[in-house]
Every structure is written in C-alpha cells, then in structure tokens.
User: Which sequence fits this backbone?
C-alpha cells in the first residue's frame, strides 16, 4: 500500500522525539521532512540515540516546497510557529496536525490573553478541529487542521466528560488536582528542570493561573452545555512521563452505578480503559502507550465523586494522540501503529 | 546539665531511625534503651550506616525495668503495641511519646472501626494529648502521654487551621489532595514499596477510605467548632521523604488578606513558615527539617482558597514533631536539637 | 500461518512480565499456559496493569500435560526449578528456554559450588546450549534446551569477545566494573530493594564473589581459547532497567583501529550496535529494546582499552534474548517481535 | 568568642549553597559578604528556600573593599575567577579557600593544557596548599591559600593512599572507575543535566580525558613517591549527591591484613571511616556529611585489591572539606560545624 508522506516541524523536543519513535513503527507513515533550524545537518539519532537503527532522518532547515510535498505535517513547535506556517500548507492540500497551543482556544482574544501574542490566523483558527477523538471523532475525520489537545486537558476532559455530559454533577466548584512528569516542561535548558532541582521533591506551580485552564474550561463547558467553573492546580512530579489527574465533583443526586456510567460512555473506545471498581491507576501502566486509564470513585461522604485519570503526557497527551488523529484524517484504522503495550517497570 | 534518659521502642523502621538521627544531636537527650525483638544484639549503626560515629546503641529485647528507668520513652512501633505497654510506664513516672496511631483518635469505637482492633487502654486514651504543638502547646507541656499526629494530618491541620478557626470557609466540601513520599509506607518488605514498583510512577491509593481520615476530621472539627466534611485522597510520589498537601476550601465571603491571616496565626511559631505571596513550597525545602512551609492562594475563581502545605513526613510529620513535644514536656526550649536547615539538593 | 504454542513457567517476576510484554506483540507466538502456584486463578493483567488490553492469560498451577502440549516452554523461575521440570518436557518434544541459572554453567560441580544445590539433570546440562546468539547462533538453531545467559554475562561477553577472540589483550587482569538497575534483583519483597533503600544512592555488592563470575569466566575463556582472569564488581544503580559494563583490558600490542575491530565483528548483527568513535552509550538508549550498544575506547595511557557496553537487563539481558533464541530455534526471522525502538526519555 | 568574618564569592551554584548550609551552623563563622553579579540584590533564601530561617544574606556585586575586610574568603566560582582575585586578597591578609580548579595543579603548563587558559597567578599557585587534610594537614594549618580538591580526586586519593604510601601495589595499571551524582555537573542550565535526560539512565563520560585525571595523577604520585599510571573513567548516576570510587590495584606481594592497613592509616581521622571487613559503603550513608567511608577488599583472584570509597561530592568532595580546611587554618577544632550525621533515607 502506498505510504503517506510525513513532515515534522521542530523535532528536537520531547514531543518531536516521541513522534519519531511512534512513526518509526507506523506501517503507513513515511517520514520525508524533519526540520530544526538549530540542528540542521544533524542526524536525528545523534540527538536521540534510542532511535539508532529505526530512523535515518536528518534535520533540515524548513523549506516550504518540501513541506508542501508532504501529505501531512505535524508541528511539534512552541506556540506561535504553527499559526504562521499552517495556513499556507492547508491551502496547498497538506493536512496539518498542530501539537502546540496555537489552535486550541476557539476565542482569539482568550488566546492572546493567555499566550501574550496576537493570533495571526483567525480563519484557520475558526476551521481547526480540537483533536480529542473520544469527543470529536467525526469532525477530526473531516478536518484539514487539527489542534491536538494539551496534556492536562486530555486527562481532565476524558475524566470528567461522562459526568458532565450526563448532567450528574454541579458544574461549579469542580477541582482538577493534576500532577505531571517533568517532560511536560519540555526539553529546554532551564534551571527548574535540572535533575537536581526536580528529583526527590514535589511542588505545585502556576496556582494563580495556568495556560491549560482556559482550554480545560472550554472543553468541559462543551461537554456540560454550560460554562463550568473549575479550580485547576498543576504539580510537578519527580518522574519523566505521566499525568495523573485527580478530579473532584459534587453529585447532584445519588448515582447507582458510577463505574457503569464510565464503562458505557467509553465502550468501544480503544484508547480509554475504565478500570475495575476500586482500582487506582498508576501512571507507569500507560508509560509509552496511547491510552487513558480511568477509575471513578464515590468518596466516603457519598456525594463527592473522585475520578482518577492517567495518561502518558507524551503519548495520549501529545504525540500518540496526534497519530490517532492522523489515522482518522487519513481513513486508517484508528489504532494503527499505536498498539504497543506500556513499558513497566 | 543533667541529661534526660531516653528509651526507644521499635527502632528499626524509618521513624525509629529518624529519632536516632535527631536525638544523636540533641544536647540533653541520652539514649539508654533501644529495643527490637528481631534485631536484638545488633548495633543500630549496622542497620543504619549513616549513623556510624554518631550512635553506639545496640538493639535489645524490651525489658520493663530498663524502660521504667528512663525519663521518656518513644514508641516507634506499629499500632497495637503502645496501648499495651504505655499505661505501665506512665504509672511508673515515665513520660511517653507514641508515634503510632494508638492514642490519636479520642473515640475508642472509631479507633476500632479503622484499625480493626479493640482499644485496650481507654483510660490512657482519655488522658492522651494530641501532639500538634501549634494547636495544643499548653496541654502538651503538662502531658504524661502524647499521641504524635500522623504525617498527613499534620500537613492538613496546619494548612487549614487558620481558615477554620476564623470561620472563613465552608466546613463541608473541603478537599485534601495529599501526596506522600514512599517512606510513609514504612520500612517493611512489601512488593508495593519496591524501587521498581514506585520509581517513575504516580498513583492515588486508599480513595475508598484511609486511616488518617478520621484523625483529620477530628482535628479539623476541633478547629472549626463543628463537624467538618472533607474528602481526603492520598497519593504515592516517587521520592523518599516529603508530604505535599493541596487543600481546597470555599470562602464564605471575600477575604482581603489571605497571606496576612496565615502570617498572623503562625507568628512566633518556630516551625511554621508562611511563604511570600505567590510562592509554591517544594517538599525538598523541608527535607530533614522540622518545619511546615505553607502558602495560601486565592484561586482564579475568587472564591476557592488553595492552600499548599509541605512537611518532611519523617520529621515534622513524625520524629521531629515528637522531639518538639518532648522538648515541651521537659521544659526545654522548643527548638532544641531541631535547628538544622533542610538538605537540598 | 500457524501459531507456535507457548508456555511460561513462573510468570510473576520481572522477567516473566517482560516475556508477556514481548510475546504479546510477537506475530507467531500464542501464549497457552502461564503458571504460578501463588497467583493461580488471577489474571496476569491484574498483577501487571500495563498489560491490560494486551494479555488475557490467567495464572494456573503447573500441569505437566498442558505444558507438554506446548511447542516451547520458557522458565522464568528461580534456579532449581528448571532442572527438575525441563528434562521431561524435552523428552516429549517441547523446546525449552530456561532464563534461570540452571543450565548456564557447564560444570555441575561449579554450579553446586556457587548455587549450593546439587545439579539434578546432568544429561540435560550436557546438552544445553548457551543462548548468546552472537556467539553460539548455529548451536542455538539446533538446540532443544537453551540456557539463556545472565544479564551481566551478556553485557560483559559482548563487550570483550572481539578483543579476546582476536587475541589482542592480556587474558589476566581483566576488570569488569558493572552497574545494574534494580530490576536485576527481582520482584521479591526484600528490604534492600525498597524504594527508600535504593533511590539516590549507589553501592557495590558481592565484591567477595558473585554468581555471575563463573559464568563470565566460562564465556570469556571460550572466546579466548584459554582460561581468563577477571575481577568482576557489580553495583546497584538507582534505576529500574539497564546494565552498564565498563570493561578494562591491557593491549598486548598497539591496535590501529579499535572501533573497526568491533564494527567488523558485529557486522550483520541486528542486536549489537557499535557506536561512532568517541561516543558513550546511555542505558536509557536501550530501555525496552533488545539491543546491546557498545563503544570501545583507548585509554589516555595508550595501552588500556576501555569498553562501554549497555543493555536492558530485562530484554537483551533476559527475556528479549530468550525470544531471540526462540526465533532461531523455530526457524523464524531472528528479529521477529523484537523490533521496537527503545523508550526514552 | 569572636566570630570569624566570611566572604563567599559566587554563591549561586550547588557548592555555594552547600557552603551557606554548612556555615549557617558553624558556631564561629559569620557570613559578611555573599557575591553574585547575576543575582545581586536577591536574598539567598529566595534562591534556596531550604535556607529560609537560617540565612539572611543578600547577594551583592563583588566589592574588593568589603571582601578585604573579611578574615576568610571562599571561592565557589568556575575556574578562572579565583586566580584573578585571590592574590590581592592574600596580600591584604585575607585567607583564601578556593573550591575551583585554579590552584590544584602545581604545574601551570598542565593547568593550561587541561583548562585551556593561561594561569595568571603563578606565584600564588606556587604558594597554594592542596586542601586534603588527611594528606597535608600541617601545611594547611599554615596556609594563606588553600586549593580545595576536586570531588573525584578526594575519593580516589583517600581510597588509594594507604596502598601507595606503603608501596604495596603496582603503580602502573591502576584503575579508578568512578560514579558521580548529578550535582557534580553544577547548577547550570544545560540539556544534559535535565531531569528527563538523567533519570533512570547511567552512562560514562569523558573517557578520552577528564580534567580530574591530572589532579589524581599528581596526588597519587605524591603518595607513591613516583609517577603513577591510572585509567580514570567517570560515570553519571541518576542521583543528586554522592561519589562512589571503585579502585583496582595489583598487589606486589600477598598482604595479610588489608583492612588493618586502612584502619591504621586513618586512625584518629575524624572524617575517614574504614568499614568492617566485607562491607560495601553506600553513598547515601554519607549524604550531607563530611565523611569518606572506605572498604578495601581482596578480589577473588587473590592479587587484585578492590577499594570502595564513597563521599558526598558537595561535602567531603567540596564545601565540607573547605570548612574542614578553614577550621585548620584558623586553629579551630577540625570538626567544628561538621558533626551532623548523614541524612538517610
């Protein structure tokens, strides 16, 4: 079968490296272009030796013509780049998957407020589809431009959607206490991400406001059909990969079968795993895998629901989900290239 | 000055080892008896080489006479032991500090419900003082028997007391999302505590009910003057030491100076550090130190207070707090032997 | 194509779990029997949630008939089990791959000396083939019983074989300074393997003598054609997976192209990767992958060769190598089911 | 008693922070000046929250007059700074302790070869005393300028000195296989030191040549009375603190009491701990403590000595050793302020 020609823009970060790892095993994807201004001329496996033997790509300076010759282009760049380059690619028939924040917030003013940057592609923004397949599968199939969700928003939305869609909980006073591995902070040289600063410690950050809050609010409000109010506190965990969202919601009325609600909502979903009653998911159970494991609990007070939702932030929270969307956009089986079990221990 | 003769019962766990470390530096404490049935005859520093050069103690089988000759005895045992042995020691004039759960819950029925064990010393239980000096200092000074608080309850109570004492927040719907290092699980050979099971992973546990819940409820209700309702979810962090409590409460009415409330409440407290506005405490900033660092935040919705409270579970959450109580009980300066800064990185 | 029926005896440890992970992706292997006396009746994915969705196996008590109906049986047991059960299986036409130490040492007396156990199957021992494909490929193809090498011996032999086979270094005074992740110690509840005992620390162990020493000596002596003398010191690294062997040998005479020697020796080997000159392999570059990455260096003194050799102890050092042998024994492509890149970070 | 006025130049790295921690507890030291051009105006405890309550110092731009008013000045700077500033301070009667490499190598040409920098203070270099008290105590007492040893050289020299001083081993073919925690790489924002690059991995580095090699050779040659030949391979361990040196030497003739040799050599040394026969030191047993624990073993071949030597690279390998030298230079008890036990777990 013919392969699908792939370009990756900005492949030197952790989500870029993860895309390379996943696409190296994808039976239909063929990497044609891999860009990085800074590393141009260098082999990808010189930067990421884990890929030796699996990836012959060499970083190059972005060339519009070479990118336009691709069938699909992934942006694994900081925010601000995709909105500059994506519109021209779409025009020329390239399908675009953006792993950055550029097209996640439907309201350009909200984007500007949180990212301190005017949105330069409002038309593309209007067209962009939010790439959470479990909530927007059909739209993704038809999309030319997919905005892949942030890592925290993926874990939170998958965790709360069943309750909000069914109108079972208060839409005010939600709490999302989230914990992330350090790769969520990116592969940038900064003091706060040093081994010695992170290991054997735990802390919250961004309590006064984090960029994923408006994305979470937008997504959950879509589920609820009304604007939700949520307090979101992210924390940094001394580990590389993994997000654990602990979600608190107040039941509007008693619910007989909480786990059943989740099992039914996610029946048929290949990448959402509702655990047996009473289980607690570990992040390592999804390490390297494109899956969200969820366990809803009724708290001891009988009215607070506690939902535990875990993903690998680099896979279901970023690159794996992007490949999942890619499969949908190209009419491929949704699980293609995404069927490896997690690596534990 | 004359030294105070100390006995430690059950010194082979992490809280026992931490007591040995702290008391080795305490200018007035003199360790006379260190018991362990299993390790009897072995030097403590053979078990804990970090103590080489600082501790000559040898484990011995518990001997009532030798214990009764001490001025103070610490129990660093699993629950069930102190309630058997403490009453006789108290009778003979020994002051007792129990680091286990035996005397924490004032209601013996509640103890039995959570610990599956009938309480064998109801009179001692009635007499026991809860050893959280910032809430019960004067009673501790006069106590013969102190029940040292659990690690989670310490972090949660210090974090929420100012709000509850002042009646500023709803007493229902409180949330304590707590994260603990692995030493909280003890130095027992069990699969779940193995390095390979814990490292690079994060999980919740005990969502259906954890033994620290009734202790937290009891303590907070005392602060509030009414029974509080709280959802408590503990999590396991891939680190040795440290507890981070992220606490959520709903303001009853707007509050002008949240940090000021905390600064005032803890003014003069040597072991509670209220951080500057906007800061986020890291657990490593208290590693090895007998201090609780707290940072209260007002959430983006303007009505949810988010309090961040960190301690070292083995120090302020256990052995350090026990020494703090010991100092109070013997009329010593409260900070004696507890003035070392934290070790970071 | 018809599938090959597989049995695994003792699947509750880390090598057992890794076999399950690897075989779940193997296109020709079909797991028929998975035994554990202790966990009989329990689903494998209840013990190892990372396998949820990838493995439906249920532990059962070993049943000779059900095992004899398999085409191949893997032993992932402590030493002493395979030598009891393997001979009968071989008799009945089952091919056996033993991941324990039972058939590694060709000299039964040497086995008894190091493992304190008389060897009960000397005939099988005589027949057993040492399962290091890069040294014994043809014998493995024809074998009925393969003794899969230990993790340290794999890293050391692959690292030193080119020098010894070519007679380039002194065969006395070799040094193998080896470092292993904690999963090498197994999934047993023991104090020394607890998270709090391992994290943020580093130590040597077994300096007076380690069971892998005779295996290393046997293997290297085979390469050299004479008995070698080697000092082997294992160390414990605060990580789950990975072995790093740092190997020291004295050149008998100057060598022009050290890297060329290695590149030529391992040309065509799918699972040995000789790094570019000057590189230093990281264990994470092989995490989860069946590959040994090697980098030979000439030391500053011009006469000491320093070889760096890394593997994942659970994959190329155990279960992956077993699957590689399995492929050879059944005439399958050697890389079948073993082509996933490493997972980093 | 009068306090000794201290200045610290460059207090923003890990050795600087460790000096602050240690001096905060030193009964005679009074910190007067703390410099950092980059952080001038900022409180030290804002950078290092673990120091809150123990250190009121504020970073300032270096001012020669204020530094000259100190009794002692510590340089915790990258190489190249101390050789510019130290001579003027010495002239003005200030005692200088340099934690950088500027005055470690007695041969200025050798310095230039390894550090790519011409030495600008050859007279001071000639005067400088190498600050390893166990080898040069008397000279340190009289010194105006002390060059504090590197971390690896400390562990290696203390480990091999007894054998070399006694002429018991070959002086050629020595091997120092060393492993260091990540804080040895400094508190600089660089990709290679990121948490995600370091955790759960292990690697060698600098095999072709490391700057500590000439320092080690110089020190060991001094012990042996002849030029030694040693192969030194450093490795990076996924932990913050700790160095483990595994040292290999060939006995010239059989030795009856290896441990006795060490015990006798280090009798009376407060900061060298020779372990019981057969023990293996763990780096965590020295975490935060100014001690080197050593265990010499005779290898299975009966002629190779394997010495295990561990220190905390930031304490006995840097700041603690500097304070030890400081005590000697000012006629104080050598252990003053350095008597805290290690922190484990």
Assistant:
């Amino acid at each position: 079968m013919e392969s699908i020609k792939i370009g990756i823009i900005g492949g030197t970060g952790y989500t870029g490296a993860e895309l390379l790892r996943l696409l190296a095993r994808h039976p239909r994807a063929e990497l044609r272009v891999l860009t990085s201004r800074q590393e141009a001329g260098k082999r990808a496996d010189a930067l990421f030796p884990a890929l030796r033997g699996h990836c012959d790509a060499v970083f190059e300076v972005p060339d519009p013509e070479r990118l336009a010759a691709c069938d699909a282009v992934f942006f694994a760049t900081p925010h601000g780049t995709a909105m500059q380059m994506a519109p021209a690619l779409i025009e020329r028939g390239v399908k675009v998957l953006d792993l950055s924040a550029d097209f996640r917030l439907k309201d350009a003013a909200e984007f500007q407020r949180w990212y301190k940057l005017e949105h330069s592609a409002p038309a593309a923004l209007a067209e962009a589809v939010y790439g959470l397949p479990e909530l927007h599968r059909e739209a993704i199939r038809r999309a030319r431009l997919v905005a892949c969700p942030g890592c925290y928003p993926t874990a939170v939305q998958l965790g709360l959607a069943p309750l909000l869609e069914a109108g079972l909980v208060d839409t005010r006073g939600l709490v999302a206490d989230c914990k992330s591995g350090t790769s969520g902070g990116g592969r940038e040289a900064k003091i706060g991400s040093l081994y010695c600063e992170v290991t054997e410690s735990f802390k919250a950050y961004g309590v006064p406001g984090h960029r994923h809050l408006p994305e979470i609010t937008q997504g959950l409000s879509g589920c609820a059909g009304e604007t939700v109010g949520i307090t979101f506190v992210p924390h940094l965990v001394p580990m590389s990969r993994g997000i654990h969202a602990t979600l608190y919601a107040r039941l509007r009325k008693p619910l007989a079968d909480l786990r059943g609600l989740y099992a039914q909502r996610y029946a048929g979903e290949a990448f959402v795993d509702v655990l047996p009653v009473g289980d607690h998911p570990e992040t390592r159970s999804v390490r390297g895998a494109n899956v969200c494991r969820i366990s809803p609990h009724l708290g001891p007070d009988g009215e607070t629901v506690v939902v535990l939702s875990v993903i690998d932030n680099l896979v279901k929270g970023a690159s794996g989900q992007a490949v999942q969307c890619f499969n949908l956009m190209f009419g491929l089986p949704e699980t293609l290239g995404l069927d490896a079990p997690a690596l534990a221990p």
Chain D has a mean pLDDT of 97.
